[in-house]
Design a protein that fits this description.
5 helices; disordered N terminus
């Protein structure tokens, strides 16, 4: 698919997640992971199982204040006993930073200071396009909340691939 081809090309020119994200080797060996797709109005969420084999979308979080967002994410982490949080990093196609990249890095920094689980950034170039395709193939319409949470699932799956194959 187009997504697989793009993902392969993006990995060849991958810009490493630096400074305000954890090292991939610091991912806890076991436990569920929560994925977030941060947007300006909504944040999509996804979760994987304890063995990190299967993931599924969760509901969205309407974005209003930092405090409400933090409480919602803390609640999800607690409810599912998650071991880490993965936030999508929206880089430009060429791997350069965008305005939303800075926002994602700031979210990661704040979550890192406020949560008792490690926080990681995951390159999310084209995750929304892949999510739209998945939702379109599975449903007759594409409400944005489905796309947002499916994009979080794509981000999470890409991160799980990355921790399974850290040398690629």
């Amino acid at each position: 698919t187009y997504y697989q081809l793009y993902k392969t090309l993006a990995q060849q020119i991958e810009i490493p997640n630096t400074s305000d994200s954890q090292n991939i080797l610091d991912v806890p060996a076991e436990g569920r992971l929560i994925g977030l797709d941060p947007g300006t109005k909504r944040i999509g969420m996804a979760i994987c199982d304890e063995t990190r084999t299967v993931s599924r979308p969760l509901s969205i979080i309407e974005r209003s204040s930092w405090k409400k967002l933090l409480l919602a994410v803390k609640g999800i982490i607690s409810e599912f006993d998650a071991a880490a949080l993965v936030i999508g990093l929206p880089l430009n196609t060429d791997g350069s930073e965008s305005e939303m990249s800075a926002e994602a890095r700031e979210l990661a920094r704040k979550f890192g200071l406020s949560l008792n689980v490690p926080v990681f950034l995951q390159d999310e170039r084209v995750s929304t396009y892949e999510a739209r395709g998945r939702v379109w193939r599975s449903r007759s319409s594409t409400p944005s909340e489905y796309v947002d949470s499916e994009a979080a699932r794509v981000i999470l799956e890409d991160f799980m691939d990355r921790i399974r194959n850290p040398n690629q």
